[in-house]
Amino acid sequence: MCELFGKIDGGSAGSARGTHSGLTGDAIWSATVAVRTGDRHQRFRAPRRYAAVGTALVAAVLAGGCAEFPDQHPKQWQEQPSLRPQAGPQPRAEEGQQPPGAEDTETSPSEQAEPDGCDDPDPAVVATCLGAVGDVAVLPGGRGALVGERKTGRVMLVERGSDPRQLASVDVDATGGGGLTGLTLSPSYAEDGLAYAYVTTPTDNRVIRIAPDDPPDPVLTGIPRGPSGNAGAITTSGSDALLVATGNAGSPGRTDERSALTGKVLRIDAFGEPAQDNPDPGSPVIAEGLSSPGGVCTQPNSSTFWVTDRRAERDVLLRGSPDEELSGPKWSWRTSPGVAGCAAGGGLIVVALTDASAVYTMRPGPEGTFTGEPERALEDTYGRLRAASSGPNGLLWLGTANKAGGDPVSSDDRVIRIEPPNGGTAGKE
């Protein structure tokens, strides 16, 4: 791949617009909060923390097909029957140096020593012994990430070589597929150090703003919750907006009601108001018809976004933009692999598959078509994969959810950092 895929301006999925290339060693985040008295649109500058991390990485090099799919109606496309599980990633260190003990041979994760408690020998593993991961947002520079735990509501700072550290805790209700299911950095994270999350509380689904070590601040509340369909996703959209995918809250009949916030794609500003450049400036709704979204990701340098959705009859991948309603699925799976987080850009879309315990890699073409043959990778390597995000150095970050219906090992749940399938340094402009 030749371009970094990510959620923000070709950066990380949930990362800042820019990068901090000079941040190494232990640097202490500092924080100031400037509040304009009487103005509910408060401005924040919140803490940021970085620490040095190890250099061991994993390369996943998977050969992809070159044939183009026939130009046909998207609803006719299905998962290709010729797909087979691909080989797992091979460990290597950054800047061409081999990891310790790998001077002569390379070992796949399946051949490595088993984890011992929270100590995981896999060089791709960044953090261990977390709760089931809801989402991952990679920090500028790509040496750490914020991780949201779906059931506990904890937001953790993870860096290789350091123990996970709690930055915030949110009161969540994980019933009906809810909890903390979406996490992204502020569109202006380099300046304000803020993050945003999509969460289910005992009373509703909502978007909250997170500043490390401060109580979460509600941004958009009152999104209905129900016995099912509470999962949602969040990412950034442009330089000053958030894109929010909401579930149907167990009421599929209301997803076509424009006034209802369930089963929608919302585009809001940092204060929960409709983004000013929405097609309907008075409404946050830009698309409708979702059931249980697993992830939302934006195409770098464009207004295009992709949404994974778990529907009653099948799992699907949808494509839209602020000026384009979600049409029929651009891809659908005959089975229900449990589509979850996604990362888009650099000529690829990577979808985490929870129930299938794999990732699915696709190459979008013009008008929502696809070229080449999709690839299933990392099958049964790390178990149930819930989060997918990308870093500014071209690496793919994944989060597992083995403690939520899987078969966890002693080091679960984990955050993993690898080269995207097909390798390369995606996104370097």
Automatic annotation (TrEMBL):
Bias (Acidic residues): 113-122
Q: Tell me the superkingdom of the source.
A: Bacteria
Q: Fetch the Gene3D superfamilies from UniProt.
A: TolB, C-terminal domain
Q: Name one Pfam family in it.
A: GSDH
Region spans: Disordered: 71-123, 403-429
Q: Where in this chain does the record put each Glucose/Sorbosone dehydrogenase domain? A: 136-309
Q: What is this protein called?
A: Glucose/arabinose dehydrogenase, beta-propeller fold
